[in-house]
Amino acid sequence: MTSAHPVKVDIWSDVQCPWCYIGKRKFEAGAAEFAGNVDVEYHSFELSPDTPVDFDGTPSDYLSQNKGMTPGQVAEMLERVTGIAESVGLHYDYDSVHQTNTVIAHELLHYAKAHDRQLDMKERLLKAYFVDGLHIGRIEDLADLAAEIGLDRADVVRALTANEFLADVKADVALANEYGIQGVPFFVIEGKYGISGAQDPATFTQALNQILTERSEEKSA
Fold it and tell me: What is the CB neighbour count within 10 angstroms for residue 71?
């Protein structure tokens, strides 16, 4: 059974969240098994809004300093998440990651959304951060990434310098608070069902199929 009307999926996520990239892959796999169409929109969530743009240290240092974890616990956690990332085809390189503030990256995602390129921009930012060891906290670096996917580099610099989309980022964060979202990734299917975390693909397929079933029942009622 297919449906011409896509199922809306709103995803709260941060571009420095390792589970968000893993969850993105698992959602994509689940959506690929779904008979209908999906309309995906990403929303901003800041895991560490107090992080400086140029954090002086590694992600391990950051977790040790800010999350109350020992270096041993951090190493174990990063090894685990890197292994899970590999299982979905993602090659995390934590030795090269630049811990940073992500608010400007979120502004760029809203800019990209306004130019119908949000999904491409989201993928590029996650890969830049976790795989390529690139800096995603500075305007010039972000503009380079935007230009890679075909956006106007000079206009990106202008918009980010003016904080043109900062209000949109804050609105996303406020809505997450309203929904009671405390961790990401968080998926809202058709405004009805919430799925927290990087769940198995089948979980997403089932939720998407449920929407089609309900639509069919509503039509026949």
Answer: 11
